[in-house]
Amino acid sequence: DAQVISLESLDSSYLGGAHGNYYYEGTTFDTMTGEELKIQDIVTDMPSFRQHATKDIDKYLQENYSDGLFEDYQDTVEQIWESEDGFNWYLNESGIMVIFNPYVVGPYAMGSVTVPLPYSAYASFLNPNYTTPETISAGNGELMEETVTKIRTSRLEGGAQVNYGDLNVYMDQKNEFGGGTLTIELNEQKE
Question: Closest Cα partner for 49 from 116, 130, 123?
Fold first, then answer.
């Protein structure tokens, strides 16, 4: 929708051991201000929302993952409300999607769990400016293998920009660990 853009991103790593690890993170922005939104920005009645959402999250986890949940998973569900970073979420066309990554409420083998909190059940708690049922999912984006290869082999240094047809690729200044942020955006040249 025109008011928000909400993303679910995936990060993965392998640091040795039996398997790698992965992590999903939700991020939502107000498109008018550019500010990242916290759950408190879209919820008008946080105490009631928290009470209902905690109950529904617990119910969903029990119905769908009861055999794999950690014994103390309910404590974890309660604790997501305690810190600003604890509530991992994004919006889609159905509602608020709450993410529990591997090892949060269950073992790695259970995988990442996404619990839906539908607009239809939570409308009375939500700011309508950010949560309209007309929200349409943009789906997943993929780059062609040829473009990925060009990006990987271009060895972008900090501050560099390279254009590949319809894409602009930027690398910001490297951080203290040698990494940086790679930005890929659509080249919107108008004829």
Answer: 123
